[in-house]
Structures are given as structure tokens and as C-alpha cells.
Amino acid sequence: MSDLEVRQLRYFVAVAEELHFGRAADRLGMAQPPLSRAIRELERQLGVTLFERTTRQVQLTTAGKVLLRDARTALEAVTAAAHRARQAGSASPRLRIALKADIDGGLLPQILDAYGADDASLPSELVLGGFGEQPQALREGLADVGLVLSPFDERGLDSEPLLTEPVLVALAAADPLAARTRLRLDDLAGRKLPGGLPASHGRAVEHTPRSGASRPASNLSEIFSLVETGSVVFFAPLSVARRYPRPGIAYRPVSDLPDSTLAIAWPKDARSPAVAAFVRAACSVAAVQQAQAESLMQNTAP
Description:
Strand order of the largest sheet: 4-3-5-10-6
CATH architecture of the largest domain: 3-Layer(aba) Sandwich
Number of domains: 3
């Protein structure tokens, strides 16, 4: 058996994720017949059947499921190798920090100050993305370190928790629920999160919309505009609620909604002194912040 090519893996992953040859061909920017021939050749080369095909559907076989898992990892590694090589060969290397705008627990300015004081620091560059995109940016070599909300896909990554804080529900000020001082998830029955999932399910961060749902709002400004109209509700960490007070929005605690944990993550094979310096700075700043928050709660407790 000859070695597999990156092109073959990309074709296979597209079909495996779409489970439809036509949609996969559109995604790849090619015609369907050559894609079908390429998949048949891949099956012949491996000596296994990867897809069960009928006139109505395409399904992965057991062998196909195994290849999908490993093919994704292989493609991520190839992409990361290219990005990291470019970064290493740059005349002005930088530390690339992946995060979702405003999802930093209010810690980023202090972390950057502490990091900049370390002799191992490099100039920093913020790599902004949507909810849940930061782990993949790290795996693909698009960023060196990231601030992420837990839980997240930890494949190939190391991480340390930084800050745990309550999560509030943001709802329209005119919503009848805004008259209450505290809610439960069951109270949110019938209301939707920005990506279309029921709010009563209690998922603090929704990364992708359900199949058939409309495109989710891509930033907090869009989300809060939808919340103000009563179209959706949104689960926001306390730090975000404090940063965005709006007269059209009411923030209310939800007693059975899990707390939000901000973590710092980086590739497991990272050997960069700058990454280590940033992780040290983040953990140090977060420890001080968490201690101050706990002290405040103790001092204000009845």
C-alpha cells in the first residue's frame, strides 16, 4: 500500500463530515464524479470500505470512523506544521494569543502587563475568533496560546484553569422573567439561545447552531441586540455582564446553571519560552484575582 496523500485525506474528511457527495464536492470546489472516483480509489488503496452507500444516504463504516478520527488529526498536524514553520522563520516572531473578544474574565490587560515584564516575552498579537474556535486555532498552529472557556475540546492541548465565576442569563428588560431576582433553568422553557438550542438545556456557551438553524450571531454586539428584542436569551459570565450594562437587558442569576471557568491552553508539544512566560503570567494574575473575589464574597456574606 502506498502512502496516503494529504489531498486524499481532505477529500475523505469532506465526504465523511457532509455524508453527501454533492455537498462535499461543493465544499471542495470540484465536480462530484472525480470526487467519487477519488474515494473509490482510496478504498481500493486501503483495501476496506469506508462508506456504505445507498440511493438515499451515505454512512461511515467502522473503518471509515477510525480513518475520520485519524485523518482529522493528520490534517491538523500538516496545517500546524506549515503555520509554525512560517512563524519560526519570521524576522519578527510574535506570541499569538487566541481568544474571543471580551471573554477574558477581565484579566487580559493585567496578563499582558505581567507577561511583558518577563525576559522571555515576545511582542504579542491577538488572534480573535468566535465562540469555541480557539482550541482549533491552537491545533492548527494559528495561535501559540489561548484563553478558552471550559469545557472545550482538549485534543493535543495542555491547559490550566484560571478563573471561575457565576454565569447569568441576559434577557430583555421587558421579559416577565426580569421581574424576578433569581431564576432556574426550567423558568427559561420556550426561550432560545443565539444558536437555536433551548435555553433550558443549560449550555453556557453554544458553539454551533443546530442543523437547519440560522447563522448564529457572531459577536456580543449582535447577540445583545437580539436579546434586547426578546428574540433570544444569552448566558454571560459575570465579568461580561459587568462590562456590558445595557438599559434594554436584565441580567439574572440562574441557581442551577454551572459556573464558567476560564482556562489558558497551549499545544502539548510547545517548547517556546514565550509561551511558558505567558502561562506563568496568566496563572499569577488569575490567582490574585480569584483570591480578591473570594475575600470580597466572605466579607460581604451575612
